[in-house]
Structures are given as C-alpha cells and as structure tokens.
Design a protein that fits this description.
This protein is mainly β and 163 residues long. It contains no helices and 11 strands. The N terminus is likely disordered.
Amino acid sequence: MYARLTIFSISNTLAVIYVKMSPDTPKGGAAFPPRPDGRGLHAATQMITANPSTPYLAAAADAKLEDWGPLEEATGEPMQTSGTTLWSGEGDQEAGVWECTPGPSRWSLETNEFVHILSGRMTVTPDGGEPTDIGPGDTAVFPLGWAGTWQIHETIRKLYVLF
C-alpha cells in the first residue's frame, strides 16, 4: 500500500512522492523505511510539470499591436515596429506578434528565432548565401548566430518565437 504526498514548487514543477506503507503503520501515518544503500529514507518520486495558463491571442493577423518604436537594425530610412508579447520565458525566450514597415535591415541573431509570416513579404539573405523570398503562410527558422539582411518589401506581420 502507498500513501501519496503532493508538493508544488514555485517553478511550476509538481513532485508526487509515493511512500510505501508497512502493515504495522498506524492509520494516517507512513513508514519511511531506510534505503538499501543506507542513505536516508526510501520513497518513489515522480516529477511532473504543472499546467500553467496558456497564452492565447485570437485572430493574430488582425490583432491590435503596441507601438515598439523604430527598428534599431534598419540600414536605410527609419522603419517602424509594433507588436505584442504573448509569452516570456527564461532569459530571452519569448513568443508574440511583430510587425514592421518596409525597408532594409541588417541582423546578427543572439537567439534562435522561429517565424511564421501572416502578411507582407520580404527577402532574407544570409551572409555569403542566396536570397530567399518569404511571404504569407511561409515559416522559417533563423538559428543562433544567423547574420544577414532582411529587405522588407511590404509591411510584414509575423508570429515569432525566440528560444
């Protein structure tokens, strides 16, 4: 017979500890037999990630975005950005919607970035590589360290995940 002890931590991790009950354990109590190796008590532990809330944005293609100011990476006339952050994780991890007006820009990525284009189109050219046109419905991954240019031809709106 096993007793179940559930512990939640502040990092959304759930520890479920199953403790073996001995036949002579008083009702409501648990026996913690010594481990075979002599190091403390014996219990079976199962770690489970708790289910935190799910960030949700209906109709991302039409969602109202916040003004994020001029694009620092712009290499020509000023380019305007806007967006909304749906989720922020540890470090630079983030997911959201980003929009930018047309123009040229230069990028050198310090994170991995997944993008899915909702509207607009652009040409991406990695340093030393061939240009690729991407537009609505296209998906791309720019790995950590990717460097090159983005030439945005029409205001672009993308879903992004930094990881």
